[in-house]
Each structure stands twice: as structure tokens, then as C-alpha cells.
Design a protein that fits this description.
Shape: elongated
CATH topology of the largest domain: Aldehyde Dehydrogenase, Chain A, domain 2
Strand content: 5-15%
Order of helices and strands: EHHEEEHEEHEEH
Helix content: 25-40%
Oligomer: single chain
Radius of gyration: 24 Å
Structural class: alpha/beta
Length: 209
């Protein structure tokens, strides 16, 4: 979930951000991924396409609006491809099962909030906590998001907070399974067999050579 705001209030970005993200989704070129100019290829199987489109259908049935609708696109010469274009949903109820599902498809659900506290509360509503990003010109707001957002990877003015290999790739809540995270020191510890030695040497046992 990404929340965009600067020195003004969070809600002030609603119109400009909404228009920009809708235009980006509309302009995104979908097709054969090895062709020049194509930005997004097909999903992996017909079953995956049906599942994604079914979730979009279900979201609309719950009251969401598909402000950009990528279902059943026409891709020239590739009519048998498993294509789903970029889709933007607005008005999806947060308590719905679709809002709490990782779709793994080109579908973005946009939720508008009025201030930073509401944005952080929105992050906490879901079961998952892989990563969250905030875009801001305020160091105070960035610090608040860093400490209060319950996610494993935090991005500050970075869209995808993917850490480099010497940092752990974290995850919070149901986005984490196991005892240690991958990468960084956690990965070394996972593959390390530790040995603990506890010793005691009474003075009477000691010899001088």
C-alpha cells in the first residue's frame, strides 16, 4: 500500500494522484513481452487469468468501481494469450475478502485517506505486512511511518522497498513464515551450526608448565 503526501495534508493528493495513476495504468502497453515497447506480458496460465478476472468481477459486485478495467482485453494477433491489462479499483470495502487477498495480478485497489494516522491505520487493517511505502517531503512524517507502519520492509520515497542482499528481506504478520528472514545475517545464521562451550577451571586443577 502506498500513501502519497507532502507538506500539505494527505487528502490533498487524492485528485492529482488518482488522475496520474489512472493515466499510467491506461497507457501501459500489454502484449508479447519480448517485443519492443511492451511493458507487461500475460499472466502465467488461463486459470490465473480466470482467477484474476473473477476477483475483479467479485470486487465490482461488492461495490468497487473499475476506473481502469483490464478484463478480457483485445491484443492483436494474440487472441489466445492470457492477458489482463492494468486495472484500478476504487471504493472497494476494506472489510471485503477481495481487499484482503493478494491477487498476484495487475490489479491496484486505491483507498483515499485524509491524514497520516488514517494512512497508518489502513496499513494495519490487512493480514499481510510485506512492505509499505510513503512519499513525503516531511522528515517527521517519514519517521512516524517508519516506526508505526507494521510492515517488514519500509520505503521512504521508494516505490518498492526491496533491500540489498546484505540486509534481511523482512516480512510482518502473515507475510512472514518461519523463524528467520532471508538474506543478511539471518541467512548466515540459518546455515550456521553453532557450538557453545561452557568451561570452569578451578585454581587447584591448574598446572604450570
Amino acid at each position: 500500500m502506498r500513501t502519497k503526501f507532502g507538506s500539505s495534508s494527505v487528502g490533498d493528493a487524492t485528485r492529482s494522484f488518482g488522475e496520474a495513476i489512472r493515466q499510467k495504468a491506461t497507457d501501459r502497453v500489454t502484449g508479447y513481452g519480448l517485443e519492443d515497447g511492451v511493458q507487461m506480458g500475460p499472466v502465467i496460465t488461463p486459470e490465473s487469468r480466470a482467477r484474476i478476472e473473477g476477483l475483479i468481477d467479485h470486487a465490482i459486485g461488492l461495490g468497487a468501481r473499475a476506473v481502469v478495467d483490464g478484463r478480457r482485453p483485445v491484443v492483436p494477433k494474440l487472441d489466445k494469450g492470457n492477458f489482463v491489462r492494468a486495472t484500478i479499483l476504487e471504493g472497494l470495502p476494506l472489510e471485503s475478502d477481495v481487499a484482503r487477498t493478494e491477487i498476484f495480478g495487475p490489479v491496484l485497489s486505491v483507498h483515499h485517506v485524509d491524514d497520516l494516522d488514517q494512512a497508518i491505520a489502513l496499513v494495519k487493517t490487512g493480514a499481510y505486512g510485506n512492505q509499505g511505502s510513503v512519499f513525503t517531503t516531511s522528515g517527521a512524517n517519514a519517521r512516524k511511518f517508519r516506526y508505526e507502519a507494521e510492515v517488514g520492509n519500509v520505503g521512504i520515497n521508494v516505490g518498492v522497498a526491496a533491500p540489498m542482499a546484505f540486509f534481511p528481506f523482512s516480512g510482518a504478520r502473515e507475510s512472514f513464515l518461519g523463524d528467520l528472514h532471508g538474506q543478511g545475517r539471518d541467512a548466515f545464521e540459518f546455515f550456521t551450526q553453532e557450538k557453545i562451550v561452557v568451561e570452569r577451571w578451578p585454581k587447584a586443577w591448574s598446572r604450570t608448565f
